[in-house]
Specification:
Number of helices: 6
Largest sheet: 7 strands, mixed
Radius of gyration: 15 Å
Helix content: 40-55%
Number of strands: 7
Strand order of the largest sheet: 3-2-4-5-1-6-7
Order of helices and strands: EHEHEHEHHEHEE
Length: 164
């Protein structure tokens, strides 16, 4: 089983994905945290997420090698979040084909994975190349993930609507 929760920033997708993961896990699910500690504000966001999930998950922090962690998991993995992972990959000079290959390897595994992804393609076209590259890659990866998922939920204002 694979599921995707996609929506804008602070739409409530992480909370709904956590509830979904806890409901569908056979044992204690893994929370695969991808965010790198960038600055104080990002650290505050990370702490907020930790507080929200409490001890309901086994937390594993990995900012780049997602496939490795998922392949070793014994139960459902909540991947939080693909958007930050794409950011990390670009920051560390990986290209689109590297990113797509990692995702395709995850999608091929017979593992239960719940993905969280920001919908960043609904705004204006940014004026800088890196931001455009990020949006394009995020959009392409969202299509790969959504195609391979059994269920996809669009989240807005804390409400998840099943679209697949």
């Amino acid at each position: 089983m694979k599921a995707l929760f996609i929506g804008g920033i602070k739409s409530g997708k992480s909370f709904l994905a956590e509830q979904y993961a806890m409901k569908n896990a056979k044992i204690k699910p893994v929370y695969l945290a991808t965010t790198e500690f960038i600055d104080g504000e990002m650290n505050a966001r990370i702490e907020s997420h930790k507080k929200q999930r409490g001890d309901s998950f086994i937390t594993v922090e990995e900012s780049l090698q997602l496939n490795k962690i998922i392949s070793q998991s014994k139960d459902l993995v909540l991947l939080e979040c693909l958007s930050m992972w794409i950011n990390n990959m670009l920051y560390h000079k990986f290209n689109f084909s590297d990113i797509k290959e990692e995702i395709e390897n995850i999608m091929e595994q017979d593992k239960d994975v719940v993905f969280v992804l920001n919908d960043v393609g609904s705004g204006i076209i940014p004026d800088n190349e890196l931001a455009r590259q990020y949006i394009d890659i995020s959009g392409k990866i969202s299509q790969v993930v959504a195609q391979g998922c059994d269920e996809v939920f669009h989240v807005i204002a804390g409400i998840g609507t099943k679209i697949k």
